[in-house]
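Give me the fold.
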Amino acid sequence: MKNTGIAIVGAGLSGLYAGHLLQRLGIHDYVLLEARAELGGRIASVNAAGPSTSDTIDRFDLGPTWFWPAYQRALHRLMDELGLAYFEQFESGDMMVERSSDERPLRMPGYESSPASMRLIGGMSTLIDALRRTLDPTHILTGQTVRQLCATPTHIDLHSQDSSGRLTTWRAAQVLLALPPRLAASTIAFAPALPQALTQQWRATATWMATQAKYIALYDSQFWRAQGLSGAARSVCGPLREIHDASMPGGSAALFGFFGIPAHVRKKVSTAALRQHCRAQLARLFGPQAAIPRLDVIKDWAQDPWTASVTDLDAMMDHAEAPVAMAASGPWQGRLIGIASEWSPHFPGYLAGAIEAADRGVQAVTIRR
């Protein structure tokens, strides 16, 4: 049995930021429990120099990519406080459009987002690394999957399991759930059960990125820019429906795309075959050089058990309305609070939502201490 004041379940952006806020308030009796071997949750990246390198500049997002400082101000302030460098998404030049498999792709005038979409130098994993450095590493445990939460009149017992099957019990006064509502409701056993209406609402809340898959192709040069192209494309033919320039200033040239193939269909196709189809599509759009990336990677979030549930395989990707974050009465009231991005009232599913939801959750638990 291990004791802590506050247990945070999940070490993605919301969980790490919650720990950051607690430490800033002088609260150090907390623990972060993460099921994955790595921190970051849905923020993940591929390193152009290989997984074993310490270079953190030439990394590319497999999860969320953009933020908008003009109206995501709390996230913007955090990035500035952490000293992170960012840049505007490249959108200059024409875009390519595939309207039919029977027609050649069309070259059309591109458009620039307003407000501008911004990206971090080194990818969003840079934000995770920066937050991790603000925390006491002894408070963070990876490879700990929380299986059950049991509420008593005085505390909550969390039962977690590591990769070898060994069980550990954590006794906490309060718990912050930093994993998606649907995943929490479907993978954690609650004793006593959560209110039925709350459980139904959490299960009905779509998990952002859970249905998605991304393809990233790295090159030695931005050959599309030399042709006056922005690297942006739209397609009804696929397999990628939306493509963007993913190049990193001071790093590799890159293109990335979102798959337009449903998750349950992708599951039946090998990764090698999907990569081959993606290369062929990029060649149709940007020329033969696009067919020979020096590295290409697919991340299918629907196949990630720490992100998606069975329900997500047939779900539509959507920024759902934020569900209620805690029980209004009963043994869980004020002691169990959801802080993942989906619980954000203003930015559900977005990176900024993880910041907002974590801030609200930390305020709630500290008021009740």
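The domain at 1-43+125-206+320-369 is CATH 3.50.50.60 (FAD/NAD(P)-binding domain).
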